């Protein structure tokens, strides 16, 4: 079957999405907040279940606020204990879904958290416009609670 221009366009959009998400992951691993700010759009559809006992989880909507979440997470957790692994990386046009496992320890309590995660990102115009993270919020809240 011959390749059509629609196939090529779809593939190039997916390739662009994959590239931006790979850049996002590299910047995240490096702790490069400036690069993260550049990768996020000016306005971002940010979703992470609100959790009042977790200091780094709060509503965000600008690229700078979204990038700051990674700095805030690092400030409240023990770097040596922080782990995230990605075992699935799916791309469909402008959307990417990452699934894996994360764990860490909260400085203030010394308690650990862990669990699976799924992250949905949308890339438009070379920047991340959607960041929806689904994670084990109960485990994280328990790790942030002093009781």
How would you characterize this protein structure?
It is a single chain. The chain is an alpha+beta fold and 147 residues long. Helices cover 37% and strands 35% of the residues. The protein has four helices and five strands, in the order ααβαββββα. A five-stranded mixed beta sheet has the order 1-5-4-3-2. β4 and β5 form a beta hairpin. The longest helix has 26 residues, at 5-30.
What's the quick description here?
This protein has helices at residues 5-30, 33-39, 63-76, 137-144, and strands spanning 40-48, 83-92, 95-105, 112-124, 127-135.
What are the salient characteristics of this protein?
single chain; about 150 residues; alpha+beta; 5-stranded mixed beta sheet; 4 helices; 5 strands; about 35% helix
Helix residue percentage: 25-40%
Radius of gyration from CA coordinates: 17 Å
Query: What is the helix/strand order?
Result: HHEHEEEEH
Beta strands, count:
5
By DSSP (H or I, 4+ residues per run), the number of helices equals 4
| Shape estimate | elongated
**Span between termini:** 63 Å
Question: Poorly predicted ranges (pLDDT <50, ≥5 residues)?
Answer: none
Strand portion: 35-45%
Q: Output the structural class.
A: alpha+beta
Main sheet specs: 5 strands, mixed
Widest β-sheet, arrangement of strands:
1-5-4-3-2
- Average pLDDT: 91
């Amino acid at each position: 079957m011959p390749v059509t221009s629609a196939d090529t366009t779809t593939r190039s959009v997916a390739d662009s999405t994959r590239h931006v998400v790979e850049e996002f992951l590299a910047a995240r691993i490096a702790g490069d907040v400036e690069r993260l700010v550049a990768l996020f759009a000016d306005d971002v559809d940010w979703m992470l279940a609100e959790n009042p006992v977790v200091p780094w989880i709060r509503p965000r909507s600008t690229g700078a606020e979204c990038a700051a979440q990674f700095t805030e997470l690092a400030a409240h957790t023990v770097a040596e204990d922080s782990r995230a692994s990605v075992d699935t990386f799916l791309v469909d046009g402008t959307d990417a879904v990452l699934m894996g496992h994360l764990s860490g320890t909260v400085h203030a309590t010394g308690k650990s958290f862990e669990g699976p995660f799924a992250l949905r990102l949308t890339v438009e115009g070379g920047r991340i416009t959607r960041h929806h993270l689904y994670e084990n919020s109960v485990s994280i809240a328990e790790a942030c609670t002093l009781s």
